[in-house]
Amino acid sequence: MSSQIEEDSKDGSDILQALDEELVTKNLSNLGRTADGTKFSYLNLSIPGLNLSDIACLSKFKELQTLNLSNNNLNDLSVLSELPFLLYLNVSNNKIEKLFDFLPSYNLKEADFSFNRITEIGNLSNFHYLQSLQLNNNQIKRIEGLEYCHRLKNLNLAHNLIKKIEGLENLPLLGLDLRSNQIKKIEGLEPLKYLRFLNLSGNMIKFLHGIPEKHEFLEQIDFENNRIASLSEIEHLTALNLLRDLNLISNPVREAEDYYSAVIFKLPKLVFLDNRKIDSNDKVNAKNLFHPSAEYIASRDHMTNFIFNIIQDHKVRESTLPNIDSPYPILLLCGPEGSGTSHMATRLAKQFPEYFDYVYWLLNFLFLSK
């Protein structure tokens, strides 16, 4: 079995473990051809959660292509310089303070350094084939050193200390995650012409004018838990023709009158709003509320008049009748078609012949006179 190394800790109970060949052999998998195709070897190694602090013996396993060392106690990765064919690396949840403190594998594609103690990205000019980089939950203050990562498609910098969006030039990013940082202003996104997924939740953003109109591929944006307060800010998103998913949960703008319908009306191609799927009724209601058709207006007015006609009191009250001192020379009845004016006029003429003799129409108004 592997050797055990005692190390003092706050509670005095942590036991750090040094990786040995026997432990490596037990956790190898995926038998396949080596990178040069000359022989067969195990290509994957996964040893998470064993409190490892020393992985020096990995220098003997040069054919490894996938390596998972997450949830250990590592702070030195220099031995990974001996793995020239490494493609996928996961060293999340360790105690790493420096990003890539080893000579990189030329073909390294994916690296996960999340939940460590990294304070700066540094120069990644040697990582030409890197496609995915996970750096969330560290202590990074600035985006830098990525200029030569010409194949980087996914970048996760969530839960760091970043205040400004910068250093993203020449990157073919499809996904950018900047959740829970200290960003107040949307900027620096213009070079990201192929961006499809953007997460800026948990920041301090008030305005959306930094979203470039030329982002023709952007389809999902998350602004949850920011400070967006005005519905007018949605106008900055109307040029995003492929935008299908927008999240504005925990923003003051959601308190605006008719918020849900207003956003749907401004962005008619949305499929999801605030993690809720938009159905056809939502879109019809938004259309009728903010830009109703003439037919809808006529239908609504007819319905209103019909309801008023039902609840209208058709009884002629004594207080409305003329008296000897002030007789009515003429009585005018008006109302929409079907409101009962003809019936009322006939009743009045029959019931009060001493006041009304003639009933006639003139320009849609019904007159009664003596």
UniProtKB/TrEMBL annotation:
Gene Ontology molecular-function annotations: kinase activity
Keyword annotations from UniProtKB, A to Z: Kinase, Leucine-rich repeat, Repeat, Transferase
SMART domains for the chain: LRR_BAC, LRR_SD22
Pfam family, one: LRR_4
UniProt KW Repeat keyword: yes
Iron listed as a keyword: no
Top-rank lineage group of the source organism: Eukaryota
Name of the protein in question: Leucine-rich repeat and guanylate kinase domain-containing
Organism encoding this protein: Brachionus plicatilis (Marine rotifer)
